[in-house]
Write a sequence for this structure.
């Protein structure tokens, strides 16, 4: 999972990628999306039927290239485009013309794809491929880049030697993308996942961590954090001062967290029911230790999706009273994209993806990391190509990117079930999905919910996250954070640029909600803590030790499962 720092609304949601595409590319590889053979053929066929349009675009490009050649073109990169921030890109006539020609050609190709009037799915696939090719061919990625030339001069060529070595190292093993952080930049349990606590329950599927209270009094009802099943749990406990878990503990909450086991081929049969039962087991342990009848749940991304299905199961079995409240963080339950369910994946491709993971017994997290990187190549591929390979510089230590590189596997059974649910958009229709043998009807879930999304999330479009408020039967508070998928969650108080939007109601249309929403300065964390506290029971003295009623501390946090690589 990657992050974004730019804001976007509206049109960007139409090309947001979904769970189906990610898990398909994770099994079949991102090259599938970069070489969309059939959509490309349909594009060519459509343009062949419009020769006048093609001639007009070609003539326009030829005219613009002529203007560029004689120095009369007004084409220029976006002032915010960091690739061309060096003054030489505009002052050097050769470099300026290279940039202008690249921009003019890229615009023409983009316009031609629009002229083809493809259906939404074909247009998205072709534009993804065209955009990646255009980004790859940018002059900034070549040795003509003035910052690369300056580094070579300053180091007498040593930067190129270092860069070549880094390129060979990165391409020798998956994920075959530039390293975004050094493997020893942080240490899990020391400066990452460092909130004090202990493992109080270990099963073959997960470890349950209970965190040490940091206030004299705590809320009566515990909070159970259900992390994603992709990557490690410590996105919720990233680093001191940047940890959601730490913030909750310091806010007087009793916090428990599930650390999923990194599965191997021998766990291929683990499926949605396996993970749903694991959450139930964790809830039982929380209730047992705290001597309470219910638990507040907080699910992240795919962890939130599994938890939502478990809520449907609890509603069907008259046990929903065990859930005090539910928080969904960047979680998509309605997989519809721009009016077309499963637009990025057809059943044949889905079968191929499931067969590929079934053959191995798991989906390799390193391949998923590669897929994530290619979703935003300028930020996550070519930016590091220039700094690491052309300039020979090591990447900076950044906690989110370290977590992102700490990949895990996904069992073949869970991969199969996720793709099936996403392809059929099964959570939208009551009874289409099942959990632990019972049909899932989210409209029967009347628990209060807090739904968080990121306005620039390239993975889970905020409009898709918003639709969760319409699927559930209870009262929902929807909060739209700044930044993207991960940066919107890792949003501690104190950032002067941070803000979030919140509306008084949750109408069916997300754009209506946006129009009525007020912008609040700062982080959404205090808002969530306040909302959660009113649903977590009365205050009582903090427990003197971790565990209880036969469940005792096994090993200090962050436990053993998180250390498996």
């Amino acid at each position: 999972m990657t992050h974004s720092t730019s804001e976007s609304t509206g049109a960007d949601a139409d090309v947001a990628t979904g769970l189906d595409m990610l898990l398909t590319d994770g099994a079949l590889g991102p090259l599938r999306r970069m070489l969309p053979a059939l959509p490309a053929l349909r594009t060519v066929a459509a343009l062949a039927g419009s020769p006048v349009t093609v001639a007009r675009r070609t003539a326009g490009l030829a005219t613009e290239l002529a203007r560029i050649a004689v120095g009369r073109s007004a084409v220029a990169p976006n002032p915010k485009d960091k690739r061309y921030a060096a003054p030489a890109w505009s002052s050097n006539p050769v470099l300026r013309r290279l940039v202008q020609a690249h921009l003019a050609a890229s615009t023409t190709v983009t316009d031609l794809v629009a002229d083809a009037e493809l259906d939404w799915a074909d247009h998205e696939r072709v534009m993804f491929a065209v955009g990646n090719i255009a980004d790859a061919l940018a002059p900034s990625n070549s040795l003509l880049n003035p910052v690369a030339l300056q580094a070579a001069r300053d180091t007498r060529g040593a930067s190129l030697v270092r860069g070549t070595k880094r390129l060979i190292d990165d391409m020798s093993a998956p994920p075959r993308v530039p390293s975004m952080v050094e493997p020893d930049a942080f240490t899990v349990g020391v400066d990452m996942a460092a909130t004090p606590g202990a493992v109080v329950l270990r099963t073959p599927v997960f470890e349950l961590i209970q965190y040490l209270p940091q206030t004299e009094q705590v809320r009566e009802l515990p909070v159970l954090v259900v992390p994603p099943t992709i990557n490690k749990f410590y996105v919720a406990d990233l680093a001191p001062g940047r940890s959601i878990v730490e913030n909750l503990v310091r806010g007087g909450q009793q916090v428990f967290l599930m650390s999923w086991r990194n599965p191997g081929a021998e766990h291929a049969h683990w499926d949605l029911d396996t993970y749903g039962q694991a959450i139930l087991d964790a809830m039982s342990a929380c209730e047992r230790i705290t001597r309470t009848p219910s638990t507040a749940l907080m699910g992240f991304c795919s962890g939130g999706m599994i938890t939502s299905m478990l809520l449907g199961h609890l509603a069907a079995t008259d046990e929903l009273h065990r859930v005090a409240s539910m928080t969904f963080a960047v979680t998509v339950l309605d997989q519809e994209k721009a009016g077309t369910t499963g637009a990025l994946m057809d059943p044949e491709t889905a079968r191929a993806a499931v067969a590929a993971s079934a053959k191995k017994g798991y989906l390799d997290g390193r391949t998923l990391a590669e897929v994530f990187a290619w979703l935003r190549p300028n930020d996550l591929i070519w930016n590091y190509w220039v700094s690491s390979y052309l300039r020979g510089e090591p990447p900076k230590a950044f906690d989110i990117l370290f977590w992102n590189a700490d990949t895990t596997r996904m069992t073949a059974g869970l991969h199969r079930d996720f793709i099936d649910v996403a392809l059929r958009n099964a959570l939208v229709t009551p009874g289409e999905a099942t959990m632990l043998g019972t049909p899932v009807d989210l409209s029967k879930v009347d628990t209060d919910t807090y739904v968080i999304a990121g306005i620039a999330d390239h993975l889970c479009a905020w409009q898709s996250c918003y639709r969760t408020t319409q699927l559930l039967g209870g009262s929902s508070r929807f909060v739209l954070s700044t930044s993207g998928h991960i940066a919107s969650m890792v949003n501690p108080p104190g950032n002067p640029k941070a803000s979030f939007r919140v509306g008084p109601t949750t109408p069916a249309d997300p754009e209506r909600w946006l129009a009525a929403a007020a912008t609040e300065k700062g982080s959404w964390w205090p808002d969530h803590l306040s909302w959660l506290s009113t649903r977590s029971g009365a205050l009582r003295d903090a427990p003197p030790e971790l565990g209880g009623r036969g469940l005792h501390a096994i090993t200090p946090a962050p436990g053993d499962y998180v250390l498996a690589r």
About this structure: The chain has two domains: 10-155, 197-352+408-563.
